[in-house]
Task: structure prediction
Amino acid sequence: MTTGDVDVTAGDWEREPDPSGSLRTFGAVVQALREHAGLSRVEFGALVRFSKHTVESVELGRRMPDETFVERAENALGNTGALRKAARHVTRGEPGLAVWFRRWARLEKLAVSLCTYECRLVPGLLQSEGYARAAFDNRIPPLSDEQMEAQVVARLERQRLIRERPNTSFSFVVEEHIVQRGLGGDEVTHEQLGHILDFAELRNVSVQIMPIASVCHAGLDGPLALLETPDGKRLAYSEGQENGRLIIDAKEAATLHRRYATLRSQALNSHDSVGLLKRIRGAL
Result:
């Protein structure tokens, strides 16, 4: 980092291993303002007393800009306040979490309630390590060993929320076929079922199974996640292949919350769901 008027070269800043969207956006703003001022990276670097390589890394979202860079860049590019304001929203990348999921993951840490409906696989917050590895092992294109470890670590780290936030309510509605599928083999499935049952014993966790034989189903449009913030806002998140969407529109979010409430009424209650999970595990 920089101190005083000492120039800091590119090698002195930690390179972001997985640049966040906000870093890339901030960098794009810096580049646009620099080019509008008619400055090359070398010329701009001289004005802000940072190397050309550091300027390039910030503009490409590869390095976190420190306060000194922001202030000098602001002064050199018209002092409009745009960079100071943009810098307040810059966050680091979070290895192991998809770019489109990171904002929701941060909101999860603040929520007073979290609800999840899944029709594809066991929800990430309930996955055992073996199940998570089996899920990531099926990714196309294949993950490298480093990517696999980052994904598994991030998924298990998220699960700490459930035990560390005992006053937050966690509700899960999971399709029966998911726990019947046997992803990873009998041993992994047996462990996974036990993992879910352990969580289901917690007072702040509700697990409900949507039976295969159900004739009514409010979740046919796909998986969804819901949360409520401490100030009472209701948000939703919808994820597809290689993308996800945070839903902040109050009317749309309210519709999804009503849909989830209907799903809960159609699924087995918590007691019967636990009984079914035990029977499936016992049959392995």
Notes: Strands lie at 113-118, 169-175, 205-210, 224-228, 234-240, 243-247. The first helix runs from residue 21 to 36. Residues 1-17 have pLDDT under 50 and may be disordered. The longest strand covers residues 169-175.
